[in-house]
């Protein structure tokens, strides 16, 4: 039983106040078949919205089966609507993206947390649409769409059905069919309340309530209430709720519906994902590039060892300016210096090195590369034992033998697929025999470590570069702990050997600790990687703003859909979840595609430039989680806006 007592409802229209309901008192018995009639603006639709819990009165009381509902919260009204009431609308309000059976099952999503289609199919067959189960709304006539709406109103087995102009958009034939269906439902004990302006429709009901200017002006009984099914029609607001599915299954269902909604507008969805896709791709690719460079540096320096020192000539002061001396013996390094430093306590090995740039020629091919003149200690100290052939011997170094070991890049450029071992090449017009192939080192940033030729130290100094000095001396301590002690002794020995003046003691030689260099370069690489990732993350922020804009547009476009979902029992949290899931789906899909884009980009970058890249699981996980968080954060505002829409205002949109 429905009872309205002294109900008032007014709307503010600009500066005017419209009194839609004025002191309405009304009782509707269970099992009745009522029509509410009146001219436009008489308040009949407002009365139905109050009766159907889509709107609340400004004052007065409204009870359903003894429960006062006029002061209930929106969510409490939603729960009551889905358990007691079914709606049929003049505009049908079917969702265009899903089938007839799914449209009918929509209320079950909010009452049971699932959308089983078996009962929906049975109801569609009962209203004569058994052959239209999988059709969409645009594939059906107006009468067929209204039958789908009737089946949807029945899915939760309501005790009362409110129909707002159910025949207003139908032809005469469809009108008769719909009224017959409603009459049959009333005979089964369901209370029917129709809002109509057609006298012929009102005459087919059992009771006509006429309204004018927000007030009831007449209440006419045309036929008695059928008591046969009255017991079935008794209202109850304390019935046990249907078995509700788990929250996880509900989320999966929301995810499925959200994905289908997004696929309807493929171009808009793709544009929404583009910002996230580019952002995630850029973040992962930049982190991979930075990590790859860091790994290359670490590998290169690790091969030298953390107990390695590099001695270079320093600077002296001539005329007040710090310059590196090109003549004299003050800061020039010699091979004899490396032999002397080998005798320093805690020193395991020393290696003198000269370097330069040369032209390598083989038959009709030539290549510009770097050359190193080294001693036999070099391959062990640099983990550079030949992968094919051999390294030169001490005797070959002493006799200035013209033998060479080539890097992979040099071999590729001048030999192609031919085996270089035993072949003769010209280095700066001097013939050398290839005796070995260096292991592949790859790139250290833009520098190709495989683009080099190694020859004996004496051969490089006397036959190629014309030097009587060495460029650097590498010193290997017996352990990392001994490095500090070795540093002090090495400087002292070198200053003593070269008779360095007291004023130049601090600048005559440069001694680099490779462990410190390794730490500094690794730190720089990490800083650069973080900086690149931060810059790339800005595009993620832009992508998130794009998602928010698109979702706001979606909320506007789907306002009537929101009203429908609330009318069939959706709570605010249900609407919030639906739109939030859609935003997260966009972010997740964009994140996955962004990771794929990053992988492709790093492969192309490595192939074209040879720069090392390394995609780590951590960078992928962080980028993915961040993209999902972007969707969550930027989707909250549109989702909250959608969830706060009053159901009646949403249904009246446009």
From the N-terminal CA to the C-terminal CA, the straight-line distance is 34 Å
Describe the biggest sheet? 6 strands, mixed
Low-confidence stretches: 238-244, 317-330
What is the 3D shape?
rod-shaped
Percent helix, as a range, is 40-55%
Derived structural class: alpha+beta
Strand order of the largest sheet: 6-7-8-3-9-10
Tell me the strand percentage band.
15-25%
Average pLDDT over all residues: 82
Number of helical regions: 21
Number of distinct beta strands: 24
* Rg over alpha carbons: 43 Å
Please tell me about this protein's structure.
With 654 residues, the protein is an alpha+beta fold. The protein has 21 helices and 24 strands. Strands 6-7-8-3-9-10 form a six-stranded mixed beta sheet, with helices on both faces. Strands 14-15-22-17-19-18 form a six-stranded mixed barrel. Strand 18 and strand 19 form a beta hairpin. Helix 3 crosses helix 4 (118-126), helix 3 runs parallel beside helix 5 (142-154) and helix 5 packs parallel to helix 6. The longest helix is centred in the C-terminal third of the chain and has 44 residues, at 514-557. It is rod-shaped. The relative contact order is 0.12. Mean pLDDT is 82; it is low at 238-244 and 317-330.
């Amino acid at each position: 039983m429905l009872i309205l007592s002294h109900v008032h409802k007014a709307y503010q229209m600009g500066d005017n106040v419209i009194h839609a309901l004025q002191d309405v008192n009304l009782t509707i018995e269970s099992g009745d078949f009522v029509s509410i009639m009146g001219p436009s603006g008489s308040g009949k639709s407002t009365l139905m919205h109050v009766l159907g819990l889509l709107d609340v009165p400004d004052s007065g009381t409204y009870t359903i089966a003894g429960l006062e509902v006029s002061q209930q919260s929106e969510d409490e009204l939603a729960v009551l609507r889905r358990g007691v009431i079914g709606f049929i609308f003049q505009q049908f309000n079917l969702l265009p993206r899903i089938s007839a059976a799914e449209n009918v099952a929509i209320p079950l999503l909010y009452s049971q947390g699932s959308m089983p289609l078996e009962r929906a199919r049975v109801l569609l067959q009962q209203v004569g649409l058994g052959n239209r189960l999988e059709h969409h709304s645009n594939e059906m006539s107006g009468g067929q769409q209204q039958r789908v709406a009737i089946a949807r109103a029945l899915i939760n087995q309501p005790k009362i059905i409110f129909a707002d102009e159910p025949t207003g958009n139908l032809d005469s034939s469809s009108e008769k069919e719909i009224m017959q269906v409603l009459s049959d439902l009333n005979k089964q004990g369901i209370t029917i309340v129709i809002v109509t302006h057609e006298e012929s429709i009102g005459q087919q009901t059992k009771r006509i309530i006429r309204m004018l200017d927000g007030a009831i002006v007449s209440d006419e009984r045309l036929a008695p209430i059928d008591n046969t099914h009255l017991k079935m029609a008794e209202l109850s607001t304390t019935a046990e709720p249907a078995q509700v599915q788990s929250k996880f299954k509900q989320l999966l269902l929301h995810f499925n519906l959200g994905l289908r909604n997004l696929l309807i507008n493929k171009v808009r969805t793709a544009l929404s994902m583009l910002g996230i896709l580019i952002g995630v791709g850029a973040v992962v690719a930049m982190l991979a590039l930075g990590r790859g460079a860091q790994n290359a540096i670490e590998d290169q320096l690790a091969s030298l060892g953390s107990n390695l020192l590099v001695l270079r000539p320093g600077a002296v002061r001539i005329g007040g300016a710090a310059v590196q001396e090109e003549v004299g013996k003050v800061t020039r390094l010699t091979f004899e210096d490396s032999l002397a430093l080998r005798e320093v306590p805690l020193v395991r090995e020393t290696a003198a090195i000269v370097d330069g740039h040369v032209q390598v020629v083989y038959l009709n091919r030539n290549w510009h590369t770097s050359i190193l003149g080294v001693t036999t200690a070099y391959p062990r100290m640099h983990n550079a034992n030949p992968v094919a052939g051999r390294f030169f011997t001490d005797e070959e170094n002493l006799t200035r033998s013209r033998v060479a070991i080539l890097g992979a890049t040099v071999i590729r450029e001048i030999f192609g697929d031919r085996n270089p071992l035993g072949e003769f090449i010209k280095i700066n017009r001097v013939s050398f025999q290839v005796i070995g192939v260096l292991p592949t080192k790859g790139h250290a940033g833009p520098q190709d470590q495989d683009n080099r030729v190694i020859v004996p130290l004496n051969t490089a100094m006397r036959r190629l570069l014309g030097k009587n000095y060495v460029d650097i001396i590498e010193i290997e301590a017996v352990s990392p702990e001994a490095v500090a002690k070795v540093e002090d002794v090495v400087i002292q020995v070198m200053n003593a050997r070269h008779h360095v003046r007291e004023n130049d003691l601090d600048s005559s030689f440069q001694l680099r600790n490779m462990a410190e260099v390794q730490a500094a370069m690794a730190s720089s690489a990490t800083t650069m990687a973080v900086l690149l990732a931060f810059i790339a993350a800005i595009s993620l922020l832009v992508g998130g703003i794009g998602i928010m804009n698109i979702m706001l547009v979606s909320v506007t476009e789907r306002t009537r859909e929101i009203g429908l979902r609330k009318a069939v029992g959706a709570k605010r949290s249900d609407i919030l979840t639906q739109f939030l899931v859609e935003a997260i789906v966009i972010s997740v899909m964009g994140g996955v595609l962004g990771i794929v884009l990053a992988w492709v980009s790093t492969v192309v970058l490595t192939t074209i430039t040879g720069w090392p890249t390394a995609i780590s699981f951590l960078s992928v996980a962080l980028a993915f989680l961040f993209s999902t968080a972007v969707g969550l954060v930027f989707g909250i505002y549109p989702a909250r806006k959608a969830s706060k829409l009053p159901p009646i205002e949403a249904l009246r949109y446009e």
